[in-house]
């Protein structure tokens, strides 16, 4: 059983008095871990009693180093040392391993804003060396606890609110990188005079990596604060090395996506660019470069597959182009297998639908030639909207619908980024207990969904894709509501298409304007 606390600021009697009270009530704890500022500007009087041995900490106490120039003198040895009986300075950076097998990684100081880094700051080199020392450990899976004074930047992404703290501006990017790499089961930080217990987050990418343990980030307030914000946190933890692997990787119901996904993706891209390019060659002497026939026999010529005819609708269909129910004044482009139409009651005037001419229920039901034309329309719309200073978002709901409708909505580039849009989908999905997973980069919807399976699917202009398998009820307006929300288009009044239907002459004029500007392929 462990205790963690935020900025002590030299209030030793307050923190140790609180620890004594807790132990008297709940039994003994094994250690106290202190993050943030252990010493303050007026610490000397209280500290002298502990330093001289007149008083003793009631529990083994481990502290991080200075975060400013004023308190540097309290830490005589940069590599760590005993400051007083039962009070130990861990050091500038490293890993503390207790006799129980618990692994505690630590990084003292704040992120350096200049080079060379001051003695109370850490640099990218410090973070890299700490990561390297751990990655060299055989079968490294992560650490049990990570202690830093600053918060990690962006820790609030996909998560519950951090109150007044803006997690996109607060904290350190280097700490985010460290947390993403070390995958701590608990991460404690301070300095912001706030208490924030983030929802646990995943340390693996669903559908791409095997499940791993989750991380719980906890920021603690300053000791004895007048606002009565929580500054002391009690928790029990069994060392990772002693746990059953299946128990270790159990995912709690409130788990969220990893807040550092974007950072990890950028790091992976940078690493890939550093690696030497590989060239792969086909052996053209075998089969003379011809495709092997499906029966496995040698030979070059094979008959092309007959195009599969789409199934016929069981009743009137509003979207089969040959149907009298189609509102043809909304059609803006017709291809060989697909057509493009403005959405009725569109979220925006240039909200369009990509629709197959024949009757197909979903993307996974499409024949290869129809899918090829859908891809061409998507590329043309992406280029068209970019020329207008917009990025497209595409989604499909294969649930309570009988004809495929790919909804394509343009979002102004200066309004929000693709990452913001993705975050909005994931956050709002979590709020409604919808598990929205990211499809691997080089995969597509046809590899994760089977024909007839209900699903919801999102595709961003970056190529990133999100997927939810619908197993029960699903909000019909979910995709539209996310894009209409304050985080994206800020048009909540247009979340329901039935409230947005325009008179037929107005719809026809919008279609003519779109048709005039749009060049398909």
From TrEMBL:
Organism encoding this protein = Oxyruncus cristatus (sharpbill)
Q: Which residues form the Cwf19-like C-terminal domain?
A: 306-414
Q: Which GO terms describe its biological process?
A: mRNA splicing, via spliceosome
Chain ranges of the Cwf19-like protein C-terminal domain = 432-521
Q: What is this protein called?
A: CWF19-like protein 1
**PANTHER family this protein is in?**
CWF19, CELL CYCLE CONTROL PROTEIN (PTHR12072), CWF19-LIKE PROTEIN 1 (PTHR12072:SF4)
The UniProt entry's sequence similarity note says: Belongs to the CWF19 family.
InterPro entries per the UniProt record, alphabetical: Cwf19-like (IPR040194), Cwf19-like_C_dom-1 (IPR006768), Cwf19-like_C_dom-2 (IPR006767), HIT-like_sf (IPR036265)
Residue span of region Disordered: 287-313
Query: What molecular function does GO assign, one term?
Result: RNA lariat debranching enzyme activator activity
Q: Give a Gene Ontology cellular component term annotated to this protein.
A: post-mRNA release spliceosomal complex
């Amino acid at each position: 059983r462990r205790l963690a606390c935020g900025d002590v600021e030299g209030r030793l009697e307050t923190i140790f008095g609180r620890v004594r009270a807790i132990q008297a009530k709940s039994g003994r704890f094994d250690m106290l871990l202190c993050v943030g500022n252990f010493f303050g500007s007026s610490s000397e009087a209280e500290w002298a009693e502990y330093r001289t041995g007149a008083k003793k900490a009631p529990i083994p106490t481990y502290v991080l180093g200075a975060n400013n120039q004023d308190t540097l003198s309290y830490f005589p040895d940069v590599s760590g040392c005993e400051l007083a009986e039962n009070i130990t300075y861990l050091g500038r950076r490293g890993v503390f391993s207790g006799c129980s097998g618990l692994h505690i990684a630590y990084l003292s100081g704040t992120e350096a804003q200049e080079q060379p880094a001051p003695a109370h700051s850490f640099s990218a080199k410090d973070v890299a060396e700490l990561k390297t020392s751990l990655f060299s450990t055989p079968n490294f899976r992560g650490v049990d606890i990570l202690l830093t004074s600053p918060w990690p930047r962006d820790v609030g992404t996909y998560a519950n609110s951090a109150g007044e703290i803006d997690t996109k501006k607060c904290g350190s990017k280097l700490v985010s990188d460290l947390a993403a790499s070390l995958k701590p089961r608990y991460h404690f930080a301070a300095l912001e005079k706030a208490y924030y217990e983030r929802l646990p987050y995943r340390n693996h990418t669903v559908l791409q990596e095997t499940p791993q343990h989750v991380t719980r980030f906890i920021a603690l307030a300053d000791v004895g604060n007048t606002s009565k914000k929580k500054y002391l946190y009690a928790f029990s933890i069994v060392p990772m090395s002693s746990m059953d692997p299946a128990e270790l990787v159990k995912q709690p119901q409130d788990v969220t996506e990893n807040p550092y996904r974007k950072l990890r993706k950028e790091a992976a891209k940078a690493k890939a660019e550093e690696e030497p390019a590989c060239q792969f060659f086909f052996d053209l002497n075998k089969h003379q470069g011809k495709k092997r026939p499906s029966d496995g026999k040698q030979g070059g010529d094979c008959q092309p597959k007959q195009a599969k005819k789409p199934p016929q609708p069981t009743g009137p269909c509003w979207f089969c182009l040959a149907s009298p129910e189609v509102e043809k004044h909304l059609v803006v482009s017709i291809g060989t297998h697909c057509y493009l139409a403005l959405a009725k009651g569109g979220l925006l005037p240039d909200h369009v639908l990509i629709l197959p001419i024949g009757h197909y229920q979903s993307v996974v039901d499409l024949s290869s030639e129809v899918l090829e034309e859908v891809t061409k329309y998507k590329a043309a719309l992406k280029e068209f909207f970019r020329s207008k200073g917009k990025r497209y978002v595409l989604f499909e709901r294969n649930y309570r619908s009988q004809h495929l409708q790919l909804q394509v909505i343009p979002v102004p580039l200066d309004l929000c980024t693709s990452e913001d849009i993705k975050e909005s989908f994931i956050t709002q999905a979590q709020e409604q207990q919808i598990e929205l997973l990211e499809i691997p980069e080089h995969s597509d919807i046809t590899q994760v969904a089977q024909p007839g399976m209900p699903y919801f699917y999102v595709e961003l202009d970056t190529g990133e894709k999100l997927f939810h398998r619908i197993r029960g009820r699903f909000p019909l307006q979910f995709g539209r509501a996310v894009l209409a929300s304050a985080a994206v288009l800020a048009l909540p009044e247009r979340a329901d298409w039935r409230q947005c239907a325009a008179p037929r002459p107005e719809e026809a004029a919008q279609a003519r304007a779109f048709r005039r500007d749009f060049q398909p392929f």
